[in-house]
Amino acid sequence: MRLLIAVLFLILTGPLAAQETFLFKGIVTDSLDGEPLVGATVTIDFGDQTDFVNEKGEFTFVLPRKKVVAVVRYVGYLPYRQTINLPEENLKVKMRRVENQLQEVIVSGLGSETVKRPVLGVSTLSVKAIEKLPTALGEVDILKGLQMLPGISSVGEASNGVNVRGGTTDQNLFLLDDGPIFNPTHMFGLFSAFPSEAVTSFDLYKGNVPARFGGRAAAVLDVKLANPDLSKFKMQGGISLVSNKLKMDIPIIKNKMGLMVAGRGSFNDFLFPIISDQLRDLKAKFGDGAAKLFYQINDKQTLTLSSYYSYDFFQTEMLGTIGNINASASQFEYSTRNFSGKWFWALSDKANIQTTLVSSYYQPSTLLPENNSDNTVEIKQSIDYQQAKTNLNLYQGKNNIEMGLDVVKYSINPGQILPGMSESVLPLSTPVEQGVEMGFSLEDVIDLNDRTSFSLGLRYSHFLSLGPSDVRVYTENEPRDTRSLSETITYAKGEVAQSYGGFEPRAGLRFSLSDRSSIKLGYNMARQYLQIVSNTTTPIPTSRWKLSDLNIKPQVSQLYSVGYFQDSPGSVFEFSTELYYRNTDNIIDYKPGADFLLNSTPETEILQGINRSYGAEFMFSKKKGEVTGWVNYTYARSLNQVNEGPKQDQQVNFGQWYAANYDRPHTLNASMVINQGEHHDFSFIFTYSTGRPFTSPQGYISYNNQILPFYFNRNDIRLPDYHRLDFAWNIYNPKLRNKKFKGNFAFSIYNLYGRKNAYSVFFRSENNKLNPYKLTIFGAPILSLAYKFTFNH
């Protein structure tokens, strides 16, 4: 009997003992910040086996078969499903938050995704990559990082904003969690206004702009604030020569509601005389703060509330008196207040809708302390921006369809004088401008087959200039001035004074030559109804913004582009080249001697023309290994022609083509990061560009014992070429007993070899002649040391 039982046991269990088993391991992280999703559920074959993700984000199974179906779920994230053929390498699952499903459709991919997507001109850098690069005075700067990419430049080291593919600074739409930022810099352009410690991602669209974006002719920078951690308290901060910063993630209801708050402040202007003699007489302070509340309503709905505030104060004694105000100095004060709320509803796995409300208020002011008085005269401006929009996304087979509807209301105060207690200054107000912009968009991304895909987008925008307003009508084909003024029409509140509109088609086509190379074609059209009117090379914070009306037509841009993209095996190396041509109608320029401050008839100082911009961009990057970085070269031209009529005061340069202020034909950028294990790395960046054009005096005349210059052709000469080398050494996580606390130092040298680059050239009357002088912002190596820490509870 015992022998019989033993034989039966071997017969029954023998197949089980001989059955082959397979080890299946993986890691589950958040798709945006890479944090492990502790507690996520991993199910095999619909409940056959279940495991939970550990504190490292890992899970492990021993399975008796090669082919299984794995499903990963976590509260607040979209489920992940995949059929697995074992054995294979560890599965890396990047879970997408429910409210970020819309956003991640447009986030540019890594590696071969750049080759496969049917869009051109999308520039993306991670915040972590920018943190490794050398910085000016230890301040991590998104805009300065973007200028290391092809097709993106500025007119100087302290310029306000960036120029993208031949566009002006105001032709770029800067968004922070959907709220527009009208002045994206602090301290007149020295630093970015985006708080890098609170930002999780950003994308610059300089080619194919998604149809849901409108209102700007050149580019869109879409910056997203980080979502709060819902499971544990986190804190990080930093100290540098420029600013002090702090960010906290505060779970309110675990895995359901959390709050992110971040702040940055700069009060170190006493260091300016040490940095540069040119900064000796300046006083400057700035601060910004951001907050984001995330609430997981249920498995299909989320609510996000975001806010942002920034403040700047800047004083110089160089500008002094304005008009008849006898001031001892010029002070500039400007602030931004943004609020946005987003409701996301996943109707099903193949459909979702997102509704957003945005409020933005930008207020720049010029403060003029009167001599021998305690009184300060204020010249105040403002932009009040209100927006409502909704987007519907459908995923049907090979189609990714997005439909959008948005409405924007503008209220612009061009300027008013508040005299305070002054007896010599009278109050003055320029008329407030009102307008409404409406847009409808439809876009579809279609994968025809493995080799061919395309995106088709169509946007229709319509703009209404509204009363109350007095609209001046001038004689056609005559210069706009008092002599040609024929009548003035008064419009009541809410009455339509002028309307513009039209379709804005956008298209991209990708054809794959192989799994790792592709050719792309793109077309993008955009209309712009809001612009800066300024006669400065780079707009200052108090530059005047103006809506289109009867006399000022909206700018219309058309961009044509073609590109070749090549990825290497393993996505270690990537090469791309793009050619573009842009045509922009109704660009804004100005008459010689124009003054827009408190001008109630700005159209008499403005001229409109056309811009032609074209270029070639080459980019080679190494993305993996001990040494990473990129090298890119851009050849670009940007030329204007302004010819409104036959008379000289209707033309610039007698109606001939001339270089735009930001025309810099040759630009070379290179970056290199040398990773030396877990504890430190070194990085270098080098940049070279052709000097920008400026207008030089053709001669001078003597009048009342004064030497006065006179000018002939605009932008007829260039500054010396610009080049600079920077260095940084990052030291990570020095040995600390508290493992929850991590700290790192960043030592950097800006302008390593002390190049005295010219920001501008100005002329002084000396000894009966005009002598040129070069203005340099950073003319010597600038050393800085910054400290950053993180704490996880």
TrEMBL record:
Q: How does it sit in the membrane?
A: Multi-pass membrane protein
Which Gene3D superfamilies does the record cross-reference, listed alphabetically? Answer: Carboxypeptidase-like, regulatory domain, TonB-dependent receptor, beta-barrel domain, TonB-dependent receptor, plug domain
What the entry lists under SUPFAM superfamilies is as follows: Carboxypeptidase regulatory domain-like (SSF49464), Porins (SSF56935)
Signal sequence region: 1-18
Q: Name one Pfam family in it.
A: CarbopepD_reg_2
Question: InterPro entries from the entry?
Answer: Beta-barrel_TonB_sf, CarboxyPept-like_regulatory, Plug_dom, Plug_dom_sf, TonB-dep_rcpt-like
Q: What are the subcellular locations of this protein?
A: Cell outer membrane
Q: Which UniProt keywords apply?
A: Cell outer membrane, Membrane, Receptor, Signal, Transmembrane, Transmembrane beta strand, Transport
Question: How is this protein annotated for GO cellular component?
Answer: cell outer membrane
Q: Residue ranges of the TonB-dependent receptor plug domain?
A: 138-219
Give yes or no: UniProt keyword Membrane.
yes
Keyword Cell division in the entry? The reply is no
Primary residence: membrane
Q: State the similarity comment.
A: Belongs to the TonB-dependent receptor family.
Protein name stated in the entry? TonB-dependent receptor
The species is: Jiulongibacter sediminis
